[in-house]
Amino acid sequence: MTDETKLPENSPETPPDSPADSQNGWFHLDVHPQVFFVSAALIVLFVVATILFQTYVGDAFSMLQSAMSLYAGWFFILTMNVAFLFVLGLLFLSRFGEIRLGGPDARPEFSTFGWFSMLFSAGMGIGLLFYGVAEPMFHYVANPISEAGGPEAARTAMDITFLHWGLHPWAVYAVVGLSLAFFAFNKGLPLSIRTAFYPIFGEKIYGWRGNVVDIVATVATLFGVATSLGLGVQQVNAGLDFLLGIGQSRLIQVILIGGITAVATWSVVKGLDKGIRRLSEINLTLAGLLALFVLLVGPTLFVLNAVLENIGYYVQNLPALSTWNETYEQTQWQHGWTIFYWAWWIAWSPFVGMFIARVSYGRTIREFLLGVLLVPTLVTFLWITIFGNTALNIEMFGAGGIAKAVQENIPISLFVLLENFPLDWLTSALSVVVIITFFVTSSDSGSMVIDIITSGGNPNPPVLSRLFWAILEGAVAAALLLGGGLAALQTATITTGLPFAAILLGMCYALWKGLSEYSGPQEMAVGAGKKAPTEFRITRKPSLKKTFGRRKLW
Questions:
Q1: Which end of the chain has fewer beta carbons closer than 10 Å to its terminal beta carbon, N or C?
Q2: Using 50, 70 and 90 to split pLDDT, how confident is the model at 499?
Q3: 360: Cβ contacts below 8 Å, ≥ 6 apart
Q4: Which residues does residue 100 pair with via DSSP β-bridges, in sequence order?
């Protein structure tokens, strides 16, 4: 890696959080024309059609979700397991662990705590707050593996929840993140999804093949983030209704989306270090305080005992549970749970993967994989155990009532749990704040990643286009809520996750091929007779270097 291709934040020419073309002001737009306008047109067309045909889209979404889950469910399960086994192979069986992302002299931009905070906030965030109580209660009441109620149902409920939130999604994130980080920081290629396919297509990634990959990634990312925003705003509405009695409706939720999206503009303007990093550290700290409160005032011993038992049961049953496909039962339980989750994580993977790559400069591959795969998974397991097992304890041995509340209204499940403890108004208010901060970081992180892709790999994209994508994310989330609520959110995720699942499998092969051709310390052999593409460089002065079609529009 040459001096020109080092991450700009570590360059004396470009200080952190100084966009490469910031001197052009807010009204400067620097995009890849085909990727930006085609992606934006597809998404805007969807929003307009959903709003105009609200009467019909709800049923259409439900039918489409069922059809895609039925015929493509096996492919989602295959993709998730291939990604998981691939990451395990890289971590424990390969010789690539000591390669440093960015070169032998590269050092991390962010502290370990800041890095983990951003990983967790981007990767899970709102989803855990939404499902941390609700999902274990759903599976306790009804699951296809055990009888409803009782110890075995409780154990199975936690096992299924761990499957959906455990190692598999983080393995997918690791594949995408490592692919982008390795080829961008060690090869000097643009920071874009198409970059991961250079070992397969070579210079052809700068043509229509690369455009298709980036367009699919952009649409999948936006709908994946919009799904999380839609879930999060439902929970914010439930929390505010609990605190203030404002009621729950889609109109209120749309208003909340508009307000919180407006708050996200502050983080957009502040940039990665001053905006997203600080918010991520704040919401992780607040979420930790909330979890600690529930652990201490709740059934502490029950939860501590459950931590090891839940993890042990998960490890024992992981091979069977992760490959189970309802073949012999001929049921459709997985359609609304496992298949939805796998599609959701895959749809999120361009966003989370690129964001992880962007903040992981200077880490070794072994440090990267251990950090991305194991640490967030452990934190997730602790969170689910604290909230899920506390709810199970109340349902099995206490006053009960949580399961019924969850069946009636999923977003209110967390607040129903907190009602069982002192200071419920304070902890509910804290929960709303945490959800909102996760909302803001997800929106800003998502818009930043989409902007990087649609600007041709510029790691410091202009503020104007990032604002455009942040607003469009809110519009899509609002349109999905108006067009069918949770069913619409799930359908959008599955629909956009399916094509990217195929891209993800190609990424695994391309990354292995690229790493295998790595010929020495921070050098890569791309094959005899092949010429590396024009290197990508960001400086404070406008660059005339071509980056697969990026052009200055004004």
A1: C
A2: confident
A3: 101, 108, 115, 177, 181, 368, 371, 372
A4: 364
